[in-house]
Amino acid sequence: MIRFLAMLALLLPLEALADDTADDDQVELSVKPVLCIVDQRTPSCDMAFHVTWQSQREGYYCVTCDLDDEPLRCWSGEREGELEDERSVLEDFSYMINEGNGQPPLDAITVEVVRMDSDDRRRRRRTRHVWDIT
Amino acid sequence: MNRTIVLLTLILAASLQAAPAMAQESPWRLGIALGYGEKSNPLILSDDIPIVVDLDIAYFGKRFFFDNGDLGLTVADNEWLTGSLMARVNSDRVFFGKTNTDFISIGLDGAPLSAAVEVVVPDRDYATEAGFEVLSDGSWGYLQLAAFHDVSGTHDGYEVDLSYGIGWRSQRWYFDPSIGVSYKSAAMNDYYWGVRPGESSAVLPAYEAGAGINVRGRLTVSYFFSRNWAFTLAAQYERMNDEAAASPIVEDQNVLGWFGGLQFRFQ
Asked: What is the pLDDT, as a whole number, of residue A3?
């Protein structure tokens, strides 16, 4: 038991060090809202998305959207930022943050577009069965 | 239990089949809601119908479709409407599966009987019905007109149903209220809600029901956690027609249903 605790005590600082290293590179992206409902009356998702990010270290960061070729905005020497992105969408799309053009994304958030309508109007029919309540 | 296992197996098999076509609209619509709800039973000596699982199993092909027990063959589909030939099993029989037997010692006139009389709610069968259905929708909502006639020789009657609904969103919430009316022919009404002379007793008089119109309203509210997961609350009210409500086997003209639970949609 004592040997086990001693080994644990030896391993813990290494674990903490590994976490520190990971935290240094950690960039968190946050988007609100991350879900939008569309239906026949409102067939597209027209809204302003609030995008924020923060990093453990200062650097050059760009927020991109997979629907656009160019970054939405880039920051130099910053460790956090935010932007408001107004757009009209029909399908799922993602916001990403990277360290400049061509760099792999450090974090990504997908905005889901939930469709309540359909081209097939039979999908909206109501059954009249006793057990069908939802 | 076996039925549940078979249905769940079908759902899983169908969802696997549906998965590669996710980019397009899959012909399958599959969902399951787990929670709790009840549907009141208008019959005397009856229990309410508990609802713990609500399965949604539907397949929509180009012409053929299956929607939770209804079979359809689409014969017209244009900008304005979709028309289909339909077949279904009338589910009013479900109420008759949740009845009890009792012994009553007071007659219809309020006088005590010489011996207790056994009161049994008469049994009724499921009916297979065929008909047509017309659907239309737009930014104004959706309209559904359907007419069904018994083809199984069970009640030999018919039903004409009209429903209207309109949905709207508010952030993660989706509201789907609807209203409807349903005309039930005398033959259909009498089969389910009438009491034949052979079924009557000192405490259950014979009764012949005429035609009537049921009215109903329904509200479904869903809060979406993601595309697949939602919390759903549903409430339904149906007022049975006066002819059915006047039957000695009916004790409540209003049928209330509600359900609250977590819903998963395979897509």
From this structure: 57
The per-residue pLDDT for B9 is 45
**CA-to-CA distance for A129 and A123, rounded, in angstroms?**
16
Residues B122, A25: Cα–Cα separation, whole Å: 74
Q: In A61-75, which positions are buried (b, 16+ CB within 10 angstroms) versus exposed (e)? A: bbbbbeeeeebbebb
Which tens digits make up the pLDDT trace of B47-100?
Answer: 999 999 989 999 999 999 999 999 999 999 999 999 999 999 987 888 998 888
Nearest CB to B137 within list A40, A112, A114: A40
Give pLDDT < 50 ranges for chain A.
7-8, 10-22
Domain boundaries along the sequence of chain A: 21-116
Residue A133: its pLDDT value, please?
A: 61
What torsion do the CA atoms of B44, B46, B51, B56 make, to the nearest 10 degrees? -70
Interface of A with B in 22-51 (CB under 8 A): 33, 35, 37-42
List the CATH number of the domain containing B161: 2.40.160.40
Residue B257 belongs to what domain range? 2-266
pLDDT per residue over B224-263, tens digit each?
999 999 999 999 999 999 999 999 999 999 999 999 999 9
d(CA B9, CA B107): 52
CATH topology of domain A21-116: Immunoglobulin-like (2.60.40)
User: How many Cβ atoms sit within 10 Å of the Cβ of residue B136?
Assistant: 16
**For residues A46 and B204, what is the distance between their CA atoms, to the nearest angstrom?**
62
Would the CB atoms of B49 and A37 count as touching at under 8 Å?
no
- Alpha carbon separation from B221 to A85, A111, B176, B218 (Å, rounded): 29, 22, 6, 10
Q: Is the CB of residue B156 less than 8 Å from the CB of residue A27?
A: no
CA distance B43 to B99: 8
Domain count, chain B: 1
